[in-house]
Amino acid sequence: MENSRSKNAILNIVFGYIAQIGILALSLLGRRIFLMYLSVDYLGISGLYSNILTVLSLAGLGLDSAVIYSLYKPVAEDNKPLIASLVRYFRKVYTIIAIVIFALGLAFIPFLKFIINSDLPQSDLVAYYVLFLLNTVSTYFVAHKVTLLFAYQEQRIEKMVSLCSAFVLQILHIIVLLIWKNYYVYVITTVFITIINCIILGIISDKVHPEIKKFENTVHFDKKPIIQRIQSTFIYKIGAVAINSTDNILISIIVNTAAVGLYSNYFIIVNAIQGFIATITTSLISGIGNLSAQGNKKRQIDLFFMMLLFYHFIAITGGVGFFLLFNDLISIWLGKQYLFSQATVFAIALSFYQTNAISPIWMFREANGLFKEVKYLLLITALFNITLSISLGRVWGTFGILIATTISRIITQVWYEPRILFKNVFGHTAKEYWQKQTKYFLLSCFVFAASYCAIAYMPHSFAFLILKAALIVGISTLVFWVFNRNSEEYETLASLIKLRRIHK
Prior knowledge:
22 helices
């Protein structure tokens, strides 16, 4: 490859951050204007339909990870004829999946009335749903080209195109709300920009990688391991969807659809922060996959423990920040009428903390192709999640549904996945992993207590919100630096920040 893994990762992160900052700013402005002209029920519909279509998109689950993993080796070897043949094969697969999802989506229309708990007209709700369905299906026709960019560690291209599309979309949304105040036009605009975004991505990908069209002769490759990989990942990610993409559906059924709208105001912030983190994550996964293709286990484990430190630091900084500052932010941004209870905010913050504290586990698992070994794990987690969500949701409402997700992860995947990774990739037990996670958890508790004491009696205003956020970041940075500055993980992280090679 022409660029080093470090250079590609850094470029992807820089351009990804530019994209995320722009998208976050526009999303916040757009949400404020949205609630000025449309009710919170429409926000609930948006969040609910997104979850429903994620569930119905089961046919595509696992494909992206399996496709990118299948491309790692030929990309590392610069085997362009094979890459071209693989991409053409995946294009056919994605097209079939798009057709299947569209058919499943249409077949689900009669069941909408059992899920939506709103006073909006039923005919309008169906029309909105069909538009959301078209928006989802359209992305599959360019997915094979996007995964190629990811395999080459060129996520920055997709990020910059997404930024431009998001910028134009938010401007058009604002114009639509100011002039027509109509949700139909709002959603139609979304579909239009999504299609334009896909077309542009396809054109740019063709220009960046013209060899895909140049090598027209099909190179024979064994489809069996690819199909097995897709099947294993599919089973695993059915569980992931049941865990991560059913909360809005259950909130709509058990509480009401307006509560989904309230939750979406919190989720837009969490999702934006996760977007910043995902920029790092996706950039690093490609490098880990390339490292895995070369069979260097020692460098992988060094990188893993560095990332464990980094992601736990992110987890506690964000988790404490969300718990202590979320309602202040929502009050200033949208108004006190859109607030959740502090208990519900705790459930949101805890989920963020847990997800990021264990992120290196699934990152290395996917980069090393361990799909078969964990394919049933999340199905078990999902069973616990749905059962607990229904039980706790009937007692505690939105808080019960959200906290059930965290509980179900703790009793299943949090303790099991590390065993699989260390056994199959690193070749020894996960004892050192648990020692480090225990240390980081204790440091996290200290950060929370110190942050709470530091800001507990500060007034609620925008200026003090900024000050509180700065104090939380400062406290967590100081604590993690003091207790980890002499560790190998810190040295590896410091060298990466200084733009030296990840795998020194």
